[in-house]
Amino acid sequence: MDHTITESVKAESLKTLKKLISIPSVNTVNGNERAYPPFGKGIDQALKETLAICDKLGMDTFYDPEGFYGFAECGDGDETVGVLCHLDVVPGGDDDKWDSQPFEASLENGVLYGRGTQDDKGPTVAALYALKSLMDKEVTFKRKVRFIFGTDEEILWRCMDMYKKHETLPDMGFVPDSNFPLTYAEKGLMQVKLTGPGASKLKLKCGESPNVVPDSAAYTQGDADKLSAVLEQMDIPHEVDGQTVTVQGKSVHSSQAQDGRNAISLLAKGLVGFQPHPAISFISEKIGMETNGFSLFGEVKDEITGELTLNVGLLEINDHYSEVTLDIRMPVSQEKASIEEKLKEAASRYGLDYKEYDYLPSLHVPLESDLVQTLLAIYRDHTGDQTEPGTSGGATYARSMPNLVAFGARFPDKVSLAHQENEHIELDDFYKAMMIYSDALFRLACEPGNGELAED
Ligand SMILES: [Zn+2]
């Protein structure tokens, strides 16, 4: 079957993508607030708009009355092919670093700029209009196709928890929120807070997010010259400005912690002999500059996804308490329990209490499974590119339900600009992804037998 995308579908999909980009679907609700809509008006507007578009495309739609998720479907059959997307985006970031406005789609020389063009509105719209393209051809769907729209992917995935509580799970499917050809294994993710005593003399608030390796950590508690001398001796890059000493590291995503340089760990190294505190000693003695957690856990790695990664994302010490936030990505074959146990035990020796903040189990759909092989063959047919499928320390919705893999929409030769300024997508790539998704939906939903899963 020819999956070429018609000019009218191209035009319509572009219009839809521009419209969705113009909705600033950024979470505006604080962590613990109980609100409706749960993550703010922008996200809710994007969800409602998307469902209205699906309705116009001829799909049946459902809006969760509590506002956590929505879905749209078409076709018949006992089995369902799921396509899991997210409509929330990260904030625009630094306006000055954008050549356009993050929430106004701007098209220049075949390139569409705007927040969400890559993550995840562009891929979502590409997959949606791939379905539209099949509907136009009046194909017969022997399985249902259900698009599930999440609203809290960038923070805690509460949308998917609610979906799983209330709705039936698809039998198989894909998540257009990664890169081609596809990702069949993702490490288990654990974020943990270790809390301990406060301190009257030492106050710190370092790091921006658990999943970012901090590129700076500032100390403002006096004796700047002394600390600077200690850091100097240890060859730790830093700046002194009055009584503030700022240690410099290198920021990367925590799943790639080995490529960064953690400023909190560097500062802890300098402070440990100088401003004693259990949280500082723990970081300095049990983690140091290790990004594989060797001192805490021993060697943890497997052949599929490699070594464990560990990042000290946040450190806060104030009058009342101290809190160290760790981001840990475990190889797919690793049991969570033993990591948890070792960490609890080590922390308790420093008088720190262990509290789980977030946990996402790993994803592993075997490489030889029919789902992986079917999608891979489709990608190769359309591109001729023989890049091998990959594994990742990052997290997509593919791990939120069984039998899903992350599939596109970024091509392997294109840079990822997710969460960055000047995020953009080339329209040629957008339409090429649409063609690949059209074939994928056709093979999975119109020719049942495809995508069956290997025994677990
Ligand atoms: Zn995403």
Quick recap:
30% of the residues lie in helices and 25% in strands. With 456 residues, the chain is α+β, with helices and mostly antiparallel strands.
Order of strands in the sheet with most strands? 1-2-6-3-7-22
In CATH terms, the superfamily of the largest domain is Zn peptidases
User: What portion of residues is helical?
Assistant: 25-40%
> How many strand elements?
25
Any idea what the radius of gyration is? Answer: 24 Å
Work out the strand percent: 25-35%
Number of domains: 2
Describe this structure in words.
The chain is elongated, with a radius of gyration of 24 Å. A six-stranded mixed beta sheet has the order 1-2-6-3-7-22. The protein has helices at residues 7-21, 41-56, 121-136, 158-166, 224-233, 263-271, 278-287, 294-297, 336-348, 370-383, 427-446, and strands at 60-63, 69-74, 80-86, 106-108, 111-113, 144-150, 172-175, 178-179, 183-186, 188-197, 204-206, 216-219, 238-241, 244-248, 301-302, 306-307, 309-317, 321-330, 353-360, 363-364, 390-392, 404-406, 409-410, 424-426, 448-451. 30% of the residues lie in helices and 25% in strands. With 456 residues, the chain is of the alpha+beta class.
